[in-house]
Amino acid sequence: QLQLVESGGGLAQPGGSLRLSCAASGFSLDSYAIGWFRQAPGKEREGVAYISSADDATYYADSVRGRFTISRDKSKNTVFLQMNSLKPEDTAVYYCAADQRYGLVISGTYDYWGQGTQVTVSS
């Protein structure tokens, strides 16, 4: 069974950091494009960071560029989202997703999705 499981969410203060993990079971993430998405209450889902299946090139939404970093550890079959300089507007449920298409997949239509992890930024 193909499964993605996010972890690492929680409460952080403004200016703080969190690192989210997306672990895969049942398949290898090596050849998959990965995206991190978030959805805040009453808002549409937003793609925030993407990593290519081809060469690990990355792309970020303007709202997080310079603060968030997406990376993959092939030995752990895990993708990470390092979030620094957190802001209250980063509060949302964060989801990782995997897609079999080649390269960067800057899209909301991914093949596999995790269940999400809550990130709350508040003092």
Describe this structure in words.
The protein is mostly beta strands and 123 residues long. 0% of the residues lie in helices and 48% in strands. The chain is built from no helices and eleven strands. The protein has strands at 3-7, 10-12, 18-25, 33-39, 46-51, 58-60, 68-73, 78-83, 92-99, 112-113, 117-121. Strands 2, 4, 5, 6, 9, 10 and 11 form a seven-stranded mixed sheet that branches. Strands 1-3-8-7 form a four-stranded antiparallel sheet, with no helix packed on it. The protein is globular, with a radius of gyration of 13 Å.
List the helices and strands and how they pair.
Blueprint: E1 3-7, E2 10-12, E3 18-25, E4 33-39, E5 46-51, E6 58-60, E7 68-73, E8 78-83, E9 92-99, E10 112-113, E11 117-121
Parallel strand pairs: 2-11
Antiparallel strand pairs: 1-3, 3-8, 4-5, 4-9, 5-6, 7-8, 9-10, 9-11
